[in-house]
Amino acid sequence: MKKLRLKFDWRVFVVSVAIVVGVSHLAERLIGLPYWVCLGIVVLAMIVNGVIAEWEDAQPGGFYNPIDDQIDR
Asked: Which of 19, 20, 37, 69 has a CA positioned 20 to 30 A from the CA of residue 10?
């Protein structure tokens, strides 16, 4: 199994934080829950979404594991 090397990119981090803060603020206004509760929900949703996307990409036929018919030759 290949060892996964994580690379930190500040631009992705800043954009992700901006999205989390913006969506949390919007959810606070629309739903009426406290800001910190909305922030926790949004952060958890982004983490779960990332884990599911990574899992799907690793499946046969996914982005990281294409089947023979999908490989350009």
From this structure: 37
Q: What is the model's pTM?
A: 0.70
CA 59 to chain CA centroid, Å, is 17
3-state secondary structure the chain: CCCCCCCCCHHHHHHHHHHHHHHHHHHHHHHCCCHHHHHHHHHHHHHHHHHHHHHHHHCCCCCCCCCHHHCCC
Give dist(CA 52, CA 66) in Å, integer: 17
Q: Which two tokens stand for residue 72?
A: 């350009």
| Cα gap 60→70, rounded to integer Å | 11
